[in-house]
Amino acid sequence: MEANENCASKCCGRLFEFLDSSIGKKFMVAAAGLLLVGFLVTHLAGNLFLYVGDGAFNHYAEALEHNPLLPLAEGGLIFLFLVHILLSARATYLNRKARPVAYESYKGKGARTPGSRTMALTGSLILLFIIIHVATFKFDVGGLKGQTPGTEESLYAHVITWFSNPLYAAFYILAVGGVGLHLSHGVQSAMQTFGVNHPRYTPLIRKAGLALAGLIFLGFVSFPVYFGFLQKCLSCSTGAH
Amino acid sequence: MEQIMDNKLMNLTLKIWRQKDAAAEGELKSYALTGVSPDMSFLEMLDVLNEQLVAKGDDAVAFDHDCREGICGMCSLMIDGQAHGPEKAVTTCQLHMRQYKDGDTITIEPFRAKAFPVVRDLCVDRSAFDRIQQAGGFCSVNTGNAVDANSMLISHDTAEKSMDAAACIGCGACVAACPNASAMLFVGAKVSQYALLPQGQPEREKRALAMRAAMDAEGFGHCTNEYECEAACPKEIKISNIARLNREYFRATLISE
Q1: Cβ–Cβ contact A12 with B under 8 A
Q2: Are B43 and B134 a contacting pair, CB within 8 Å?
Q3: In order of start, what are the domains of chain B with their CATH numbers?
């Protein structure tokens, strides 16, 4: 029994050492980040039902909401966000402490990218967006569902109503731009953190990371652009005929 | 005649970090320097400044230097926000004043990191690197005399990779250039040079664990893959060495007893 406890504490000790180490923190941030990208892809795929129509989208949303495993998935998602945010916030704090006196002039040699420079900024923007997004879309803060009579339960109508608000649509576009910028660095950076660096594959990984960031940005930005602006213009022009 | 015109002496304004000792507050001070030849190295230019300062009865600017031929890793300096100045794959001692033109203002600061405290002016204490190296950057098995050719099979590519990593002179430009003051390129190079060769295998896991722990204990920052270290490195150490360090550390965590 004692030997077992000793064994467990040794194992936990090594594991804790890894998680607390500079490399281990990055490893966890990268792993959680890539899993969150996986969530984004699924989320985007689900949202594409918006283009099929209100029936298809509402059916999808209802099926999702009635799935008994949903709370588990939501819990997992919250866990991933917490790991990603808390560990990167701690790393950022320690990084600031690692250079207590700043340079008067700091230019570098051009290796940094707009994405890499702004990881903390875009990350914070995305967090702010998620809070507002979950509040408005899941918990109906702002109470829009009641304002569209007869469609109280329709998530489709809810989405259209929010995107018709230019301020909300603009914020959504800004946040999704932040996601794109965050991923333009994040995807290839995660691979490097996992130790995947190869003369043959790394250039491809960098391009694929950029492409994925671009696709996720374009996919999500299409919703406010289409439902907030284009659809209105289309219906205006059809109305004029 | 044309050559004389080309070698025209320059006048420069230098803004240099002056700090009496580790405990003192430092500040950037401006100096007007005359008669700088484009053929001088950057350090020779500082020698000229010091001669002028001493002649006036001022304290000379303290800066680190040794071999002055780009192989020892002693010179440093953050020159206009770039470690070892504007050129690629060059140490400060191999930077020449022909890079500058008459009337230029040059800002010269010490390498900045919590783990590299300023000793005086532009000199920083880089012994943190020595302590990381002492934690595991060695091979304690007796490798004996040079063996007969081809009796120990190492592919040419692998030997070259190890040699490329071993080219690190430990100057600390990677830390200075990193937005997070991370030492991952240095530690990556030192772990890689052994991990790639048979002689490094007996202590492979122990080395990765110990050098990572020593690196973090010195207070260096976390690598966020900005790759400024690779761009600043005078010996062009590649970031693939950081990826290898990540792998080595992860592997050692899993399999080391």
Answers
A1: no
A2: no
A3: 2-119 (3.10.20.30), 127-255 (1.10.1060.10)
Interchain CB distance below 8 Å, B225 and A109 = no
| Residues A146-164: tens digit of each pLDDT | 555 444 558 898 899 899 9
Flag whether pLDDT at A101 surpasses 70: yes
CATH class, range A24-96+115-240: mainly alpha
Among A100, A107, A188, beta carbon nearest to B114: A100
Determine whether the interchain pair B246/A195 forms a contact, defined as Cβ–Cβ distance below 8 Å: yes
Question: Where along chain A do its domains lie?
Answer: 24-96+115-240
Tokens 């420069």 sit on residue: B12
- Half-sphere exposure (CA, 13 Å, Cβ side) for B194? 25
Taking CA B178 as the corner, what is the angle to CA B173 and CA B179, rounded to the nearest 5 degrees? 145
Distance between CA B186 and CA B175 in Å, rounded? Answer: 8
Between strands B27-36 and B105-109, the pairing is unpaired
Distance from CA of A9 to the nearest CA of B (A): 13
Mean pLDDT is lowest, of A6-20, A93-107, B118-132, B198-212, for A6-20
Residue B219 Ramachandran class (φ > 0 left, ψ -120 to 50 alpha, else beta): left
> Which residues does chain B have within 8 Å of residue A194's beta carbon, measured at their own beta carbons?
246
Label residues B125-158 b or e (16+ Cβ within 10 Å = b). ebebbeebbebbbebeeeeeeeeeeeeeeeeeee
B189 and chain A in contact, CB less than 8 A: no
Asked whether the beta carbons of residue B231 and residue A119 sit closer than 8 angstroms, the reply is no
The span from the CA of B45 to the CA of B85, in Å, is 14
Residue B65 has, within 13 A of its CA and on its CB side, a CA count of: 19
Q: What's the whole-number average pLDDT of chain B? A: 95
Comparing alpha-carbon positions, the chain A residue that sits nearest to B79 is A105
What whole-number distance in Å separates Cα of residue A47 and Cα of residue A208? 22
| Strands, sheet with B78-79, edge to edge from the N-terminal-most edge strand | B27-36, B10-18, B105-109, B78-79, B82-83
Quickly list H helices, chain B. Answer: 2-6, 42-55, 127-136, 156-166, 173-177, 184-195, 204-217, 228-232, 240-255
